[in-house]
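Q: Start with the shorter request: fold the first protein.
A: Done. Sequence, then structure:
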Amino acid sequence: MGERGYRASIDEAGNAVGEIGEGPHHVVLLGHIDTVPGTFPVRVEDGELVGRGAVDAKGPLAAFVAAASTPVPGVRVTVVGAVEEESPTSKGARYRATLPPPEWCVIGEPSGWDAVTVAYKGRLGLRISLARGARHGAAPGPTCTEEALALWSRVLAASDARTPGATGFARLDCRLEGIQGGITDGLTERAELRIGFRVPPGIATTELADEVARIAAAHDGDAKVTIQPIGSEEPARTPRTTALARAFVGAIADAGGNVTFKVKSGTSDMNILAPAWGCPMVAYGPGDSRYDHTPVERLALDDYARSVTVLRGVLERARARSVR
């Protein structure tokens, strides 16, 4: 960013920050700079950039930098390459949330060049541990691991009962993300569950944590149950009618597309920043999110170029009208 004329720095959280332009209107373009583990050869193949992070989310972040490189009169743009989005800490976004809000914020996540994301489910992660005195393998009764599976079944049933018949974005998803059993030091035997919820609007993560705690307290096995939170974000939904959303509608139309508004079952830095800042906000970026976290992650370079044009059109609209 410094080479492109930005006032570039690294903030206290380790985020890469670039500011460009001057004026009364402030727009933040925040994408994340980290990726999930796993590497494979980076290459351009049939007009697509293949490589880890091409879609999630260095492609959107690169589009932000390219689109804002030529200052728009009257608009100050802050581009943030946030750290730790792909981890429960969300350190980069949480730090930026402590700063004054901009007038508009765009989160860098793959939506497709002609689509905008306006809602994300929330997330709750729990680690549930069971421990009891060690027993001989021939002793009667369930093993500690079987007790853990019985507890998981009760948690899953309670989760399913919260949104009966719902599908997609409206459904509360509960998944067993990991299990360990047969852990013993000769004195104590243990088992551990890692449970993840994807939470639709209308359900608070604290409600779910309390419900799991009640289920654990009623556990009728011999093992002692303890619960450790791993991380949580509340669901986030932003209006489709803000000036920012309308700016995207116009900019996508100018680029030859018809906008689609999307809702997603994952989470993003929007879950952190939308409640903290309360400003008009959407998520946008080139790429097909079906490639997120996959070993064939790829980004069509034509779509990347279109997204830069769209973002440039959005920034021009920030100058042309009141950004509220």
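Q: Next, the second protein, separately.
A: Sequence, then structure:
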Amino acid sequence: MAEMDTLLTTRQLQDLLQVDRITIYRMLNDGRLQGFKVGGQWRFSRQAIQRWLQEQQASLEVPESPEATEQLKPSAEALPISCIQAIQDIFAEALGVGCVTTAVDGKPITPISNSCTFCTLILGTKEGRQRCSGSWRAAAAARGETPLLATCHAGLCYVWGQIEVQGQFVAATHAGQFLDRLPDRERWSVRISELSAVTGVDEERFQRALASVPVLDEDRQQQIPRLLHRIAETFSEIGEERLNLLNRLQRIAEISSV
């Protein structure tokens, strides 16, 4: 005879997953959990939750061991990319800048949000991408708790903030692709000539694209670091929450297999 499915309340699911109510609602909103309402109250299928736990455990790809499995360590892989991307997209569009999240080594872990034409030309070449990664890597190597204004290899401004999970620096979010003053045509002609030689992109295309680079006033230049700091803190909290959840799921799976 098939086992009858039972329904869990939000409180029962909190106890099972060892998370708070806000986390349950967040997981519902982003589709990680499935539930339905009965009389205005959320209910969850126990069998569906058990299947979900098994799927989450399988995704960890942890090797079998006769001893207790070691907990997952903080890393950029703890970040839920779809969630990070959605927040990053909104931030970039609202402030009119480009934005990307990278690993500590400068390798992008999200697609770039709201990229300007000038940077898109650079990123469309292998050499350009390598140079951009070098700028992101150099920023990460400088460290620092407060986002600081820096200049990339192409001469554009950007600000970056570090993402920490359990106190470890695992990734960085960069907001940039803007200028802090109107471009000096003579100086930029020299820079564009150098970029063209490196990337193979025609100088005239770079000259036209330079007009697409936003020039931010002083107020906006001060606003971006403040908001980026909050974004980086939010990403840190999301990453830590997910890592804790994955480790709880791992423990639950170990207990269930005994």
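Q: Describe the second briefly.
A: Residues 218-257 form the longest helix (40 residues). The first strand starts at residue 7 and ends at 9.
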